[in-house]
Write a structure and sequence with these properties.
Elements: E1 2-6, H1 16-23, H2 25-29, E2 33-34, H3 42-52, H4 59-69, E3 77-81, H5 101-109, E4 116-123, H6 126-137, H7 142-145, H8 156-166, E5 171-176, H9 180-192, H10 205-210, H11 213-225, H12 231-245, H13 248-251, H14 262-280, E6 285-288
Parallel strand pairs: 1-3, 1-4, 2-3, 4-5, 5-6
Helix pairs in contact: 5-8, 9-12, 11-12
């Protein structure tokens, strides 16, 4: 069995992936992919990791935890999703970006140390990620939220390097949240381990939220007539329909933090683009590119 952890990050997926998988729980189970409800494992895994304090779980503990997570006797893949696996929102910047990510992943792998684990993570431009995270945490003032943090020095590649350093053997898959409408089929394939995910109900939920109904219908018809498209061709088709039928008000992101200028936002975006290019070349990373 493999255990697949979807880590978010915060302000990217917002449980969209989990909703899609739960909606298709039956058909996935027929293919050996088990998707338990989040209430069965989120608090349980967090509490278990705290109790273990980095030590390997005993066989008895592993069996007990697994019994509480899933009803099935066996599974090829067990998918667990939570954007707070790495941190609660108010502690994402303390200091730096997800500073305990490597340690947290190490702790979760110790709950089932003999089961192969995969980790999947979407990253987002700090220019939009930080304002969204500030709104999500709702506890700290702006001054406390960014206390001691220079947004220009936040790098997702540092998070990745930290994860790889403390967990050199785990498989880590990443993609950019901004690219999700184009790479969603590949994300579903990476997480489920299935090569054909077009049969999943609600697989185009994201596109239905940002594309005019006429465009979505025409795109669905085209894809239905051409079911064997490569990923590269599929991306081109989706991009073409989005270019013509996208709903601008659904994709516009307002960046509103005190003192943030257009120049700062442009600089953050340029730094993010360079960081993404660096991540795509890092060893031990499966990067899903648009």
């Amino acid at each position: 069995m493999q255990i697949v952890y979807h880590l978010g990050a915060h302000c990217t997926d917002e449980d969209r992936l989990l909703r899609c998988l739960l909606r298709n729980r039956g058909v996935l189970a027929e293919r050996g992919v088990v998707v338990p409800g989040p209430a069965r494992y989120r608090k349980l895994l967090r509490d278990t990791a705290i109790q273990l304090k980095g030590a390997r779980a005993s066989i008895e503990t592993q069996a007990l935890v697994l019994e509480q997570i899933m009803d099935e006797d066996r599974a090829d893949r067990l998918i667990l999703s939570w954007d707070s696996f790495l941190s609660f929102p108010q502690w994402v910047l303390r200091p730096g970006l997800y500073p305990l990510a490597g340690e947290r992943i190490r702790a979760f792998t110790q709950i089932f140390p003999d089961i192969e684990a995969e980790f999947h993570l979407a990253i987002r431009n700090p220019a939009t990620f930080l304002p969204a995270l500030f709104e999500k945490q709702k506890i700290k003032s702006y001054e406390d939220f960014l206390s001691g943090i220079d947004p220009m020095f936040l790098r997702w590649s540092d998070v990745v390097a930290q994860i790889r350093s403390e967990n050199p053997d785990v498989r880590l898959t990443l993609w950019c949240d901004e690219d999700t409408p184009l790479v969603w089929p590949e994300v579903l394939e990476a997480v489920t381990g299935l090569s054909e995910t077009g049969m999943l109900e609600g697989a185009d939920e994201l596109l239905s939220n940002i594309m005019a109904p006429e465009g979505l219908t025409r795109m669905r018809d085209y894809l239905a007539r051409n079911p064997a498209l490569s990923h590269a061709h599929h991306k081109k088709i989706v991009a073409a329909f989005l270019d013509k039928f996208v709903l601008p008000e659904k994709i516009e992101v307002e960046v509103a933090l005190p003192g943030w200028s257009a120049e700062l936002i442009a600089d953050l975006t340029a730094a993010y683009d360079a960081d993404v290019a660096h991540i795509a070349q890092m060893d031990g990373i499966d990067f899903i590119a648009a």
